[in-house]
Fold this protein.
Amino acid sequence: MDTVIDIKHLSKSFGNNEVLKDVNFHVNKGEVVCLIGSSGSGKSTLLRCVNLLETPNGGEIIYKGKDILQEMKNIEAYRTHLGMVFQQFNLFNNLNVLENCILGQIKVLKRSKEEAIKTATTYLQTVGMEAYVNARPNQLSGGQKQRVAIARALSMNPDVMLFDEPTSALDPEMVGEVLKVMRQLADEGNTMLIVTHEMQFAREVSDRIVFMDKGVIVEQGTPEQVLTAPQHERTKVFLQRTT
Ligand code: ADP
Ligand code: MG
């Protein structure tokens, strides 16, 4: 199988706080991997290390066969292959929806404005936000903002989509519309790495679930293996608390 990202022996500390300890896992092309675990277990840090918003202290991040930590000069190029969706949307509030979705395409991918608009329009349709091209983020609901953020990430045609708790900042009634879009992306074969607390969603969309606790991967496997028949005590305790 085609491995897109292969993480080996990854470690990360903030001062004396060892947040990631010898983390090993991979994401294959077309695979949907959900990362679960208690608050503070290191999930966001792991995602931020994967896209190098944080610099790991050790280990390897193999992307298409190359350790990108050994090729730091290519970070910008590497990052363009990853689509990131944050809890807090991170849209540009001074730009409208369409402008948000074309900026990176023009600046980073050097696409023509015409091509960028075409691509953005396609993905705004995917997330059901094509009627809002002229709206500013502050005119949108949280669910709508997050769908635009997803369209913006998709517009860069990334190899992997990374999601860090994309529904955690939403009012409960808006969670469904965002999960629906993500489910559709999963069904379409997109490669996705998702940090989430939505266990039912994780069970339904994941090819693999990775459970993290205190900076280590405790276990990983199919939703059935991890959620229904967990092998480790720490996983069982976590699942009892969340379900
Ligand atoms: P999770 O996403 O699983 O809730 P995080 O990766 O956000 O966990 O945090 C894991 C640990 O790393 C926490 O103890 C947190 O305080 C610490 N941490 C995260 N980011 C930073 C940072 N920029 N500086 C210092 N400590 C950090
Ligand atoms: Mg987090």
